[in-house]
Design goal:
Blueprint lengths: L2 H8 L2 E2 L5 E8 L5 H6 L4 E6 L1 H5 L7 H9 L10 E4 L26 H7 L1 H14 L5 E5 L5 H20 L9 E6 L2 H5 L1 H5 L4 E4 L1 H9 L17 H16 L3 E4 L10 H6 L4 E4 L4 H9 L3 H12 L4 H15 L1
Parallel strand pairs: 2-3, 2-9, 3-4, 4-5, 5-6, 6-7, 7-8, 8-9
Antiparallel strand pairs: 1-2
Length: 325
């Protein structure tokens, strides 16, 4: 890393008018953590745990899960660790025969849907996560939740697992926060109700954009239509953050959009509490935020929210950012 960039990495992402955004890192392997700390991560915003399984052909045991999560919590320099439960299916496959080939895997039995079907498997992972919570500030989040029933069910299973561990006198995290990824449009639309059930939201823009715009995120033929600055996407994100804040919960963003410097001011204007990104992108993002103001970000966002085409928004934002940074 360049020395110049490390200077920004070490400081918080605080605007000139003193609005601070927490900066998390997205990781797939615990081995990435030291580099993330070096690049200025303040917490882990997204640990994609399914990679524990993707690289092998056998389901991890509770102890194997635990060995990973234990190393992802209570790390010096990181104030929180957000562990996402398995997000299998969609674009993330293993040789698990229960993950059958589907015509439309992005719309199939993936993520929380799969976990709620394979409850015993889900419980093994939750046991390990809750145990790891004894060692530091831990947040757990569920991917691909589409409505209130799934969050009720996931929380019910979480409580059963926690109760079992307490009965067994196993040390656990007592104040683990429970969150939901907002990455299915229906979850965004009923965010007001979901916010009453959880401690935080984390907006997964990779999937949210895919589903809002009906663009398969891995199909290159339609990649030109994949547009984070589409007015429908921006308006929905604004509604989600507002619903979260009205209900007093934190709203993070952990999709790729959160780490894109071009969107930095738009994200500030959207009032996200945390941006979680690829660790290598952190110093640049911090530098922009440190040189921006919340006020100009709000003005920029309000300006572009009035446009009705993605092209107009993109042109305006690109021009603004080029002139300003
Ligand atoms: C997302 O969908 O934005 C996200 C962060 O999760 P993943 O990319 O792992 O689906
Ligand atoms: Mg996702």
């Amino acid at each position: 890393v360049q020395e110049d960039f490390l200077k920004y990495a070490r400081l918080p992402a605080m605007t000139k008018d003193r609005c601070r955004v927490d900066i998390g890192c997205n990781i797939e392997f615990i081995e990435e953590i030291p580099s993330a700390v070096l690049h200025g991560a303040e917490g882990i915003g997204l640990y994609r745990t399914e990679f524990i399984y993707i690289n092998r052909d056998r389901l991890p045991t509770e102890e194997e899960h635990f060995a990973h999560y234990r190393q992802a919590v209570g790390i010096e320099g990181l104030a929180w660790s957000t562990i996402r439960t398995f997000d299998l299916g969609g674009d993330k496959f293993t040789s698990d025969p229960k993950l059958a080939k589907e015509m439309n895997p992005q719309l199939g039995l993936r993520a929380i849907r799969f976990c709620l079907k394979e409850v015993e498997q889900f419980k093994v992972q939750l046991r390990a996560i809750i145990r790891a919570g004894a060692f530091g500030k831990l947040r757990v989040m569920f991917p691909m939740v589409s409505g209130i029933e799934e969050i009720h069910e996931a929380k019910r299973i979480f409580d059963i697992v926690k109760g079992d561990l307490i009965e067994e006198h196993v040390p656990i995290g007592r104040d683990i926060e429970i969150g939901v990824m907002i990455e299915v449009p229906s979850a965004g639309i009923v965010a007001e109700e979901l916010a009453k059930e959880v401690d935080f939201f984390s907006i997964g823009t990779n999937d949210l954009i895919q589903y809002v715009l009906a663009i398969d995120r891995i199909n290159e033929r339609v990649a030109y239509l994949y547009e984070p600055l589409h007015p429908a996407v921006l308006r929905l994100i604004a509604q989600i953050t507002a619903a979260g804040h009205r209900n007093g919960i934190r709203v993070a963003m952990c999709g790729e959009m959160a780490g894109e410097p071009l969107y930095a001011l738009i994200l500030l204007g959207l009032e996200l509490d945390e941006l979680s990104m690829n660790p290598l992108g952190i110093p640049r993002m911090k530098k922009i935020i440190q040189n921006a103001t919340l006020q100009e970000s709000r003005e920029l966002l309000n300006k572009v929210l009035a446009f009705n085409s993605a092209t107009e928004i993109r042109d305006y934002v690109e021009h603004y950012m080029r002139r300003r940074f």
